[in-house]
Write a structure and sequence with these properties.
This protein is mainly α. The chain is 80% helix and 0% strand.
Length: 101
């Protein structure tokens, strides 16, 4: 017959559990603060848009710049990755002396 496992924790295990719980609580607090900052930022942006007359050019420009900035970031990311891929392929062909001709 095998002995029944102990249900009590050693002091080292209790200390480790307390440490893990403290880390989890700190991570939850950080996530909550990030979420509240995001909500606050959204509220501020809404207030800024609300200050401008509805239908004005500034409102339309604000909406367009959001699209433009997102698209530019995507273009830079894709372009940069393609350039890195080309440099990597060039390096491989130089090291291995592979040429298409």
């Amino acid at each position: 017959m095998t002995p029944a496992p102990s249900t009590s924790l050693t002091p080292a295990e209790e200390a480790r559990a307390a440490e893990l719980e403290a880390q989890i609580v700190a991570a939850e607090r950080e996530a909550e603060s990030m979420a509240s900052r995001g909500r606050e930022r959204g509220r501020r942006q809404e207030e800024n848009v609300a200050r401008v007359r509805p239908g004005s050019i500034a409102v339309r420009a604000e909406e367009e710049y959001a699209y433009v900035s997102r698209d530019v970031r995507r273009l830079v990311t894709i372009g940069g990755s393609l350039i890195a891929l080309l440099i990597g392929l060039w390096a491989v062909t130089q090291v291995t002396n592979l040429t298409p001709f």
